[in-house]
TrEMBL record:
The chain crosses the membrane at residues 20-38. PANTHER family: BLL5650 PROTEIN, EFFLUX SYSTEM COMPONENT YKNX-RELATED. It is found in: Cell envelope. This is Multidrug resistance protein MdtA-like barrel-sandwich hybrid domain-containing protein. Keywords: Coiled coil, Membrane, Transmembrane, Transmembrane helix. It comes from bioreactor metagenome. GO terms for cellular component: cell envelope. SUPFAM superfamilies: HlyD-like secretion proteins.
């Protein structure tokens, strides 16, 4: 059974006029450069005739790093392991954080115990004011009956005013104390929340579903914020980064389906792909890339999304046909 590669090659060679010209060129080159060099040249020409672009496969790689300091107590992964998003794969020692949190909680309780009971502390003054108000009513009745003097009434009124000012001053002082304690408690509670967040980050949780590519850290090593622990990538979908010449830009568009080919020795596999990105700027042709027009020194990068059946690997060489 013919492979997709051979079928497409056969399709490219059915044009009679092109075939005649190619045969004449081969005869001429055979006389000039010899059979060995001719074989190499015709092989390269066939590849350029068949494929519209070439490139290498890549995947989005993510490096998971530590967010806290401490000894690594557990890191249950190996290179090549498949891991799920949200999976807990390790632990960093958080003993010091736990002790700091315990100390803060005790300090909060101690401060809250000093919080004044405003109602109890102003109850005495409020009772005195209430008693004086009742006395004022009694003296007022006596004054109206000419049984009490105006001085008695004025003295009681002045006493009530003094007690009222004392009550307001005490309320103000108690409010200042209460607000200060409330602010101190709020500050410490925020510190507790920060520690709880750090304790959560002591659990090494995998960020995305993928395959572990490189393991940078080991159990019992010291982790610091920003230290890489491992690198992983989602290999279920690969990206072929290829390069085309300027005269090929008019033949492609985003979302266009393309055919991608990979060479496994005697086997050539065909994959359906989708054009997902076209560079807006040209660049010099990479040394390891073949283009349709080898004389073109400026090319445009493109990306092709390809579903991976497990055989595609990062760095593997691929070819495509529009």
């Amino acid at each position: 059974m013919k492979t997709a590669y051979q079928n497409h090659h056969r399709y490219k060679c059915i044009h009679k006029k092109q075939k005649i010209h190619k045969n004449l060129l081969i005869i001429f080159l055979g006389l000039v450069v010899g059979p060995t060099t001719l074989t190499s040249l015709t092989s390269c020409n066939k590849e350029r005739d068949i494929f519209d672009a070439t490139g290498t496969f890549e995947a989005t790689e993510v490096t998971s790093s530590s967010e806290v300091s401490g000894k690594i107590l557990q890191l249950d992964i190996d290179e090549g392991d498949s891991v799920m998003a949200g999976q807990r794969i390790g632990t960093i020692d958080g003993t010091q954080l736990i002790l700091r949190k315990k100390q803060l909680v005790n300090n909060i309780r101690a401060i809250q115990s000093r919080n004044p009971n405003v109602q109890k502390q102003i109850a005495v003054l409020e009772q005195q004011i209430s008693t004086q108000l009742q006395e004022k009513e009694r003296v007022q009745r006596l004054f109206d009956a000419n049984a009490a003097t105006g001085k008695q009434l004025d003295d009681i009124t002045a006493n009530i005013a003094l007690l009222s000012k004392q009550l307001e001053a005490q309320k103000s002082a108690l409010n200042v104390t209460t607000n200060s304690i409330t602010q101190d408690v709020a500050t410490m509670e925020a510190q507790v929340e920060q520690i709880e967040d750090q304790l959560t980050k002591c659990q090494i949780v995998n960020p995305l579903t993928g395959t572990v590519l490189v393991k940078y850290a080991q159990k019992h090593e010291l982790a610091t914020p920003g230290k890489p622990l491992y690198k992983l990538a989602d290999l279920s979908e690969m990206t072929l980064r290829a390069y085309i010449t300027s005269d090929q830009l008019s033949k492609i568009k985003l979302g266009q389906p393309v055919k991608v080919y990979t060479d496994y020795g005697d086997n050539t596999r065909e994959y359906p792909g989708t054009l997902s990105w076209i560079s807006a700027k040209s660049e010099f042709t990479p040394k390891n890339i073949h283009t349709k027009n080898e004389r073109a020194n400026l090319v445009y990068a493109i990306k092709i999304k390809v579903i991976n059946d497990g055989f595609l690997k990062i760095g593997m060489y691929g070819q495509l046909i529009f």
